[in-house]
Amino acid sequence: MTPFAHFEAVWGRCAQLSTLHAYIDRNVAGILQPDELLRAEWVARVSALDLYIHELVAQKMVATFEGRHPASPAYLRFQVSNETLNRIRVAATPPEESAAFDLYVRSYLSRITYQAPDDIADGIRLCSQIELWNEVALWLVAVPETKLDEAKRLKTQLSLVVRRRNIIAHEGDLQQTPLRDPWPIGRADLTFVADQIHQLARAIDAVV
Fold it and tell me: Fewer CB within 10 Å, N- or C-terminus of the chain?
């Protein structure tokens, strides 16, 4: 599967949460709390972007290893363990060599989160020399004269989405008040989050 196909597969599961929320909100909102589904959907949609970047970087790095994709400066600085080097050296076929490299790359990337804008840009540098957020801005709406401002706006929006995701995932989405009430959340919030993340994934897929 392509990286974007992985993204779309998870995206479809996110849509199921959206549909389920709409049904419960219409029919049994007095019994259940459907807003918890919106919080789960928020976390899942950010996770879809995280997965997409992991797959994109891993697959492009393997393509570089196989000579099918140009090497970036960050790729050339990428360090591989001696164990992996030995597995590559004794591999009987090129596919076995690639499999050994792929296993190490995915193990390395599994310790990294690709959600915040600067982290995503760092990951892309392992497989591309582009100035990621400037190129994304140009692909979406900007012209050369406005690309820096638009790139900054896109990064700020994503940072806010990820910050709320972290509050949901790690702090129960509770406000810093004496009663610790949950932060308000609504369908419109998730529509905004979904639109932002999907357009960013499409743009990154187009420019990398």
Answer: N
The alpha helices in 66-125, defined as continuous H runs, are: 73-77, 82-90, 94-109, 117-125
Residue 163: CB atoms within 10 A of its CB come to: 12
pLDDT tens, position by position, 4-30:
999 999 999 999 999 999 888 888 867
Cβ 130 vs Cβ 124: under 8 Å: yes
Neighbouring residues of 61: CB distance < 8 A, sequence distance ≥ 6: 75, 78, 101, 105, 126, 127
Question: What is the distance between the terminal CA atoms of the chain, rounded to a whole angstrom?
Answer: 17
Distance between CA 104 and CA 132 in Å, rounded?
Answer: 25
At 44-83, the pLDDT tens digits run: 999 999 999 999 999 999 999 999 999 999 999 999 999 9
Residue 146: both structure tokens together: 């406005």
Transcribe 157-204 into DSSP letters. HHHHHHHHHHHHHHHTTB-SSTT-PBPP--HHHHHHHHHHHHHHHHHH
> Is residue 186 scored above 90 in pLDDT?
yes
What local confidence, expressed as pLDDT, does residue 133 receive? 98
Q: What is the dihedral of CA 106, 109, 115, 120, to 10 degrees?
A: -100
**What's the CA gap between 158 and 136, in Å, rounded?**
13
Residue 84 is which amino acid? T
Please work out, in degrees rounded to the nearest 5, the angle formed at the alpha carbon of residue 198 by the alpha carbons of 187 and 128.
Answer: 150
Cross-strand bridge partners of residue 174: 182
